[in-house]
Design a protein that fits this description.
This protein has five helices and 53 strands. It is mostly beta strands.
């Protein structure tokens, strides 16, 4: 009898262990399967440290050649600027009190997400202008805010009448500059008579808030208030001669609107350019160039390629509360606590809206992943896959609904990377990741903890994970970023029913020999470099050794020690009666053990890799050291300093220390054999040789388990060596 496993697969708890297909698994942790063999996952690589202990949001802001990591305790969604060649490299994100923007012209040094942002959108003014009413002209005014990027918001309700001043009417009580939105000024509009006889608002001027650091030339419009914290700004035009940078000088400006009707500009077009609502969530970019988000039961859309403008006419309410949204092609999926809604179209004003007939509520906004295969999200029944063709349970063949709950779908966050859905869960006690390979339907598990994930434009997958060896600290790690270390996998077959009681006496496990040889070579190379570095450190450690084994201090005796560039002066050794006392006094001053006594009773002071010397006064020189030369560092240099090594033999300020890797690879694997539920054999192997297993049992249900770091191509068990060799 012979059992062969040569097509390793993932788990399917829904299927009884004795009914699993060939290669099916009861356990498949930290491994990749589906490619016939069993392969380990590379360890995540630490990229950046973090200061807090709870995170839900992670992204990176790239400006120029610099990358700034942002990890937040809130769940955030990030969108890159849809504008063509945005020189400000703007990044839009939701999930805070209001949608926000990062731009490269407002960054601090160092970067801080707490301050380096502005609020998305331009609000309408709330303070109506006061128009001078002392004439017979029929005219109405309104104004809008404009920000540093030329983005314009909606206007305030117009004011005016039939008795406006006939020449240069003044405009006062304009609003003070709103904070946190990069607003720099206003645009003034007034009515004119169109060809059809209807009143239209046309551009009068653009006016910035007066600044003492700015010089103004003739014709520049400003708005100014002597009390800038109040809504008392007036409109002024700079006179001939201009105004040099400095304090306000009223003689340099004329109040009011002096623009003739014939000089009016374009029509007001931003009437409905409302800012997005506070609390908007789920920010995404539609292929049509507009941003989408949600709040409550309403889907919101921006104007195409104008991410600051969110017209009310584009709001799309649905029944049920929206939990999250996803996009595939030109279709937006609004996933609710009940029925999903689909919005299809290339522009916000051209979208069709339908509700899906299947109740498939979304349990976790963070579980949503938009992919080319559809929108995946966690629901009660399993991992749902929403497409324009319908909504299907992608895990229906793997988990029963009760088994799916073991992965805590309400707490799951998900990412889609390299054809796999990573569903990370953390109940506070249990944690891990359900990995579903969409290419072949295989499901495996990863026994690591992650709090947030981010797919970067560099094609890499980053996660907030625990620091190695410290479960209370977190950092950013690149998924499978470690090129040398591997997670230890654990795989166990289904229950293979043989149909007859028998004893399997021999086994053979075929490993990936090329992989194994590379691991062995890597370990040997690394060990060699470690030994080489140890010798370098031993030779280069600075130290001095005295020449006297006795010492008796006298009043005023002090010793000065310079250690690694730090001077410790006036160390009192007057009360010391032996060399051991001198060493203790030096260590007490330095705060660590640097001074010792040799077996010969001599004072020895050891430093780091920098030069060191000791100087003394009041006769201590003669008591401890026989000559000045004996008080100098005798360590060999590691090189790298100017004139310290041959020119071009190493990098400036470098050294001769060899780069080593923190290797944690087990070059062997462990194979276990189970019969009728009992473990019958365990063998650690590193080759393809046949090996015997203990006898004394007979069973008809066989299981084989494999664990380790080395890929396995095939596992076999047989009743005899002849059987396993095919004879």
């Amino acid at each position: 009898m012979k059992i062969t496993i040569d097509n390793f697969q993932g788990i399917a708890p829904k299927i009884s262990p004795d009914k699993l297909p060939p290669g099916g698994a009861q356990v498949a942790e930290n491994c990749y399967v589906g490619g016939k063999d069993l392969r380990p996952i590379r360890k995540p690589l630490r990229t950046a440290g973090l200061s807090n202990s709870a995170y839900q949001g992670l992204f990176v802001y790239k400006h120029g050649a610099t990358s700034e990591w942002v990890a937040l305790t809130d769940d955030v969604d990030v969108v890159r600027s849809p504008m063509n060649q945005d020189t400000y490299e703007r990044l839009y994100y939701s999930g805070q009190a209001e949608p926000r923007v990062i731009a490269n012209d407002i960054l601090s040094t160092p970067f801080s997400i707490a301050t380096d942002f502005y609020k998305l959108g331009i609000p309408a003014p709330t303070s109506a202008p006061t128009v001078e009413r002392s004439g017979t002209t029929t005219r109405y005014y309104t104004y809008t805010f404009i920000n540093a990027y030329g983005e314009e918001g909606p206007p305030i309700a117009p004011v005016g009448g039939t008795d406006v001043n006939d020449s240069t009417p003044t405009l006062t009580t304009l609003q003070a500059c709103p904070e946190d939105r990069r607003i720099t000024g206003v645009r003034i509009y007034r009515t004119s008579v169109g060809t059809a006889g209807t009143a239209e608002f046309r551009f009068v001027c653009e006016a910035t808030y007066f600044s003492e650091s700015t010089a103004y030339v003739q014709g520049d419009y400003v708005i100014y208030s002597a009390t800038p914290s109040t809504n008392t700004f007036g409109l002024f035009c700079t006179n001939a001669g201009g105004h040099a940078a400095g304090a306000w000088n009223a003689t340099h400006f004329t109040a009011g609107d002096a623009i003739a009707d014939g000089a009016l500009g374009e029509l007001l077009t931003t009437t409905d350019y409302d800012p997005p609502p506070a609390g908007l969530e789920g920010l995404l970019l539609h292929p049509g160039g507009f941003l989408v988000g949600f709040k409550g039961n309403v889907l919101y859309c921006s104007e195409p390629y104008l991410p600051y403008a969110w017209p009310e006419k584009y709001q799309k309410p649905v029944s049920g509360t929206i939990v999250g949204i996803g996009i595939v092609g030109d279709t937006i999926f609004a996933l609710t606590d009940g029925y999903p809604w689909l919005f299809s179209g290339t522009a916000p004003d051209q979208m069709t809206k339908i509700v899906h007939p299947k109740m498939a509520p979304c349990l976790s906004k963070r579980s949503i992943a938009s992919t080319e295969r559809g929108v995946f999200y966690a629901s009660y029944e399993g991992l749902m896959q929403a497409t324009t063709s319908g909504i299907d349970n992608a895990t229906k063949d793997v988990f029963r609904p009760d088994q799916w709950q073991e992965y805590y779908p309400a707490y799951m966050f998900g990412n889609y990377y390299q054809g796999k859905y990573f569903g990370w869960y953390n109940s506070g006690i249990d944690y891990g990741c359900m990995v579903m390979d969409m290419e072949n339907g295989n499901v495996t598990r990863v026994n690591l903890k992650a709090l947030a994930g981010y797919l970067s434009t560099d094609g890499k997958y980053y996660l907030v994970m625990e620091e190695d060896g410290d479960a209370t600290a977190y950092c950013v790690k690149e998924w499978e970023g470690d090129q040398y270390n591997l997670l230890s996998y654990n795989w166990k077959s289904g229950k293979i029913v043989t149909g007859q009681k028998s004893a399997l006496s021999v086994m053979r496990t075929y490993i990936d020999n090329d992989f194994y040889d590379a691991v062995i070579q890597e370990q040997e190379d690394n060990d060699y470099l470690v030994d080489l570095n140890k010798d370098l450190f031993d030779d280069s450690t600075p130290s001095i050794i005295g020449t006297a084994s006795t010492f008796t201090g006298a009043p005023g005796n002090v010793i000065d020690v310079t250690l690694n560039g730090i001077a410790y002066n006036n160390i009192d050794v007057s009360g010391c009666t032996d060399v051991q006392g001198v060493a203790a006094a030096i260590n007490a001053r330095i705060g660590t053990t640097r001074a010792t006594v040799t077996t010969g009773g001599l004072l020895k002071i050891t430093g780091g890799i920098d030069m060191m010397n000791v100087t003394v006064s009041d006769g201590v020189v003669a008591s401890l050291f026989s000559s000045a030369a004996g008080r100098q560092d005798g360590g060999a240099s590691l090189g790298g300093k100017l004139n310290d090594s041959a020119f071009n033999s190493m990098a400036f300020n470098g050294n001769s220390i060899q780069s080593v890797r923190d290797l944690d690879i087990n070059s062997s694997i462990t194979v276990r054999l189970y019969s009728d539920g009992e473990q019958r054999a365990e063998k650690t192997i590193s080759d393809d040789n046949i090996y015997r297993v203990p006898m004394g049992y007979r069973g008809d249900i066989i299981e084989i388990a494999v664990s380790g770091n080395i890929p396995v191509r095939k596992a076999e068990a047989a009743s005899s060596a002849a059987s396993i060799m095919g004879e």
